[in-house]
Amino acid sequence: MGKVYVFDHPLIQHKLTHIRQIETGTKDFRELVDEVATLMAFEITRDLPLEEIDIETPVSPAKGKILSGKKLAIVPILRAGIGMVDGILKLIPAAKVGHVGLYRDPETLKPIEYYVKLPSDVEERDFILVDPMLATGGSAVEAINSLKKRGAKSIKFLCLVAAPEGVEEIQRHHEDVDIYIAALDEKLNEKGYIVPGLGDAGDRLFGTK
Ligand code: URA
After folding, report:
1. What would the pLDDT profile of 38-51 be if each residue is shown by its tens digit?
2. What are the CA-CA distances from residue 94 to residues 34, 66, 72, 97 (Å)?
3. Can you tell me which residues bind uracil (predicted)?
4. Prediction pTM value
5. Cα 189 to the chain's mean position, in Å?
6. For ligand 1, is residue 200 a contact (CB within 6 Å)?
7. Residue 58, annotated ligand binder?
8. How far apart are CA 190 and CA 59, in angstroms?
9. Is ligand 1 within 6 A of the CB of residue 43?
């Protein structure tokens, strides 16, 4: 079963609290999501492999360590996932960025993919799939299907706030996908919102209603 990592770093929790607050406006919400995404990117990249190289400091020869050139791709689930991309790119600027768009079929209520664009070398990349909210897990599971169908072998799912239902849904369908979250909330309400959550992440990011 995939692991769940909850990032309880004080800076992440502090910023997430402001993100949650109803009085936080679009500008601050966007900036805070961006900052938390950067902090989460720092944690999620802990396992990146390093290689040793020979260097010269001004004082003497030395051994140094650099990233061994693992290829990464960030894939936001449209549209709210877009709000986390720039924050992650601040730490891993060479990552490629794909996109997955899903809509909900009005009859079956199932998520259907309407747009997928990924880097061409899918099989060689490690994917970070991002969406601020993991609610029912339906979109996340379908987005992971979309990546796997195109050859993705390594996928991490990154979100700000998750409901237990969403975590279970990913674990049930994709046991090879680890989940990285800033907070595991209580439940979903009857409208599918995470409680206490932060409301509609897309609307709050883009100032729509
Ligand atoms: N999507 C959101 O933006 N918010 C929720 O609470 C659930 C899904």
Report:
1. 999 999 999 999 99
2. 17, 14, 8, 9
3. 194, 199-201
4. 0.96
5. 23
6. yes
7. no
8. 65
9. no
Was 69 annotated as part of a binding site?
no
- Token duo for residue 6: 């909850």
Residues involved in catalysis: 104, 108, 200, 203
- Provide the 8-state DSSP code for 114: E
pLDDT digit string, tens, across residues 114-138: 999 999 999 999 999 999 999 999 9
**What is the CA(187)–ligand 1 centre distance, in A?**
12
Q: Is 133 in the pocket of ligand 1 (CB under 6 A)?
A: yes
Distance of CA 92 to the CA centre of its chain: 14
Complex prediction ipTM: 0.96
- What architecture does CATH give domain 4-206? 3-Layer(aba) Sandwich (3.40)
Report the nearest-CA residue for atom 6 of ligand 1. Answer: 193
What is the reported pLDDT for 52? 98
Strand partners, 158: 130, 180
Q: Whose CA is nearest to atom 5 of ligand 1?
A: 193
200 annotated as belonging to a binding site for a ligand: yes
Q: Specify the pairing of strand 133-134 against strand 126-130.
A: unpaired
Domain ranges of the chain: 4-206
- Per-residue pLDDT at 89: 98
To the question of whether residue 40 is assigned a binding role by annotation, the answer is: no
pLDDT in tens, 46-79: 999 999 999 999 999 999 999 998 999 999 999 9
